[in-house]
Input
Amino acid sequence: MQINEPDIQLDAVDFALLDALQQDASRSNLELASRVHVSPPTALRRVKRLRDLGLVERQVAILDADRMAAVTGHGVQAIVEITLDRQGHEEQEAFEARVIGDPAVQQCYRVSPGPDFILVVHAPDMPGYLSLAQRLLTSDANVRNVKAFFSVKRAKFDPRIPVRPRDTREGRA
Output
């Protein structure tokens, strides 16, 4: 099974490993092997190969936001739409470089059509959000429009990418 790059060949075991890693990357190699029905040496070798291919970008811990709020406070999470005045390649690259360097920016997407960027940001409170907005958005003469949507409840959060082989008969994923 080929995926986008001609050198990457994945089979059902690889897909099962990728799916299992997305569900819980802290599993031991023995647990992982058992879950995907292969021997532990096979699981270890395959996971190393998937990492070497760059399919596993990194492993992180996902914190429980509600439990962390008891320690750090809930803070303010916002989804922010940004439209640039000039949308040339250099202007987009410059804006993107500035915002991704800020720790308050959790996610940054270039989008089309509509606004040029969507950011997911987290600030400790509204004064913290105001500081972030001034630092990243209002101080940039190339930002034409900003629209912020403040999260009052997160109903779902799942960072997994659906992992399944491409349907090669119809050329569809």
